[in-house]
Specification:
Protein name: Transcriptional regulator
Keywords: DNA-binding, Phosphoprotein, Transcription, Transcription regulation, Two-component regulatory system
InterPro entries: CheY-like_superfamily (IPR011006), OmpR/PhoB-type_DNA-bd (IPR001867), Sig_transdc_resp-reg_C-effctor (IPR016032), WalR-like (IPR039420), WH-like_DNA-bd_sf (IPR036388)
Oligomer: single chain
GO molecular function, one term: phosphorelay response regulator activity
Distance between the termini: 33 Å
Number of helices: 9
CATH architecture of the largest domain: 3-Layer(aba) Sandwich
Shape: elongated
Radius of gyration: 21 Å
Organism: Bifidobacterium tissieri
Number of domains: 2
CATH class of the largest domain: Alpha Beta
């Protein structure tokens, strides 16, 4: 997959490029690195990764290059959690950009967003999702550290994104519930109801087996599930 990475933050540009190239992706950057010999060679991106500060501060030449590439590419937007940056979003009508219409048009094409700061695993998970043929903007993934859940495919990955954890449907459902509460505890009853539904009291033994099996598989992968009484959490 050919990726165009647009950011004025050199540290972010170098780190993200190294991560993507180590995963086998072909990467070009805007602005190009000083030592980039391929700068003038033809390049058609399949995915554009754009930092949220880029539209407001890039020069016109680089903006025109991005607009041209985005005609046939998906867009992964790296959004800051900084409120000041969020307030400069062209879609809010508060940006001081030299060309608000161009910036707003670029952001209207966002296929996916990734909040900064992010881990290598999170970046690769989002790129992998967008690389799937026919992926829609409604697709979603969940991440907690190096744990990545592909919600659409109902698959979980830890560390390596080319090898899903061997989870049963019930084990995956329980894991997704735990990831969604972001470090908080869930009781056995909450997990039972979420995985098996209401009125399934006869499923208690089954659910206990599910939790033991899930804990064992996560431990084998290097991830720990904490149990405190009848409550569970990831990490």
């Amino acid at each position: 997959m050919r990726i165009l990475l647009a950011t004025l933050n050199m540290a972010l540009r170098n780190a993200a490029r190294a991560t993507l190239e180590s995963a086998g992706y072909i990467v070009r950057t805007i602005p190009a690195n000083d030592d980039e010999s391929e700068e003038n060679e033809p390049f058609t991106a399949e995915l554009v990764i754009m930092d949220d500060t880029f539209p407001q501060h890039a020069d016109r030449h680089d903006l025109d290059l991005i607009v041209t590439q985005m005609m046939n590419a998906k867009l992964l937007y790296l959004r800051s959690t900084n409120l000041d940056t969020a307030n400069d979003d062209p879609r809010n009508g508060t940006t001081d950009s030299r060309d608000t219409a161009t910036d707003a048009g670029m952001l209207s094409q966002i296929d996916d967003e990734l909040r900064k700061p992010f881990s290598d695993s999170e970046l690769l998970a989002h790129v992998r999702m967008l690389s799937r043929t026919g992926v829609s903007s409604g697709s979603s993934i969940l991440t907690r550290g190096d744990l990545t859940l592909d919600v659409d495919a109902r698959r979980a990955f830890y560390g390596r994104l080319d090898r899903p954890l061997p989870l049963s449907p019930r084990e995956y459902a329980a894991l997704e519930m735990l990831v969604r509460v972001d470090g908080d505890y869930l009781s056995f009853e909450e997990l039972l109801e979420g995985v098996c539904g209401n009125g399934f009291f006869e499923q208690r033994d089954v659910m206990m087996t599910v939790m033991r099996s899930l804990e064992r598989k996560l431990h084998q992968a290097g991830l720990f599930m904490t149990q405190r009484g009848d409550r569970y959490r990831i990490g």
